[in-house]
Amino acid sequence: MILTSIEETLADTIHQLLHKAGSHRIFLLEGPIGAGKTTLIKGLCNALGVMDVVHSPTFALINEYKTIDNGCMYHFDCYRMHGISDAIALDFESYFSSGYYCFIEWPSKIEPILPEHHFLIRLEIATPNSRNLICSSY
Predict the structure, then answer these.
(1) Backbone angles phi, psi at 103, to 5 degrees
(2) DSSP-derived secondary structure letter, 87
(3) Is 3.40.50.300 the CATH number for 24-107?
(4) CA 123, CA 9: separation in Å to the nearest integer?
């Protein structure tokens, strides 16, 4: 899947991603800095009914967002984590088993505790204005 002009095609891309993900609730997003991981998560959260302002949890590590149906979603940014012990200390695994959507940026930093079943989105910068999205279900 190729994502060009973010403003024009993000909604269609989000719809396609959610369709491909099926029943998966754990989304892993990998890609270099500036690839659009947080932008994509904002779009996914909006499409799934998040009422809160979605922003990167770079320093908080975890953001919780409320949804219109009184549920919640979790957004993780593992970029600044110093090791798997940080994720264990914050009890990431309890979030993963909650049944709520979890969007995880930089998941390779916590690979040993990632759920077996997840939806992986790799973002590649094709040009300054376009991205390649490679999706896999596990």
Answers:
(1) -110, 120
(2) H
(3) yes
(4) 15
Q: Treating both helix axes as pointing N-terminal to C-terminal, what angle do 37-47 and 6-21 enclose, rounded to 10 degrees?
A: 70
Amino acid at 46: N
Grouping H, G, I as helix, E, B as strand and the rest as coil, residue 20 is helix
Distance CA 100, CA 96 (A): 8
Q: Extract the tokens encoding 59.
A: 């320093």
Q: How far is residue 118's CA from residue 129's CA, in Å, rounded to a whole number?
A: 28
pLDDT by 10-residue block (mean), the chain, 138 residues: 55 84 95 93 92 85 94 95 91 96 96 96 91 92
Residue 44: phi and psi, rounded to 5, are -65, -45
Q: Contact 115/89 with Cβ under 8 angstroms?
A: no
Pair 76, 50: CB distance under 8 Å: no
Q: From residue 29, how far is each of 3, 47, 69, 70, 112 by CA, in Å?
A: 15, 17, 25, 25, 16
> What tokens appear for 128 in the block?
């300054």
- In sign, the C-alpha dihedral spanning 121, 125, 131, 132 is negative
CA distance 36 to 54: 14
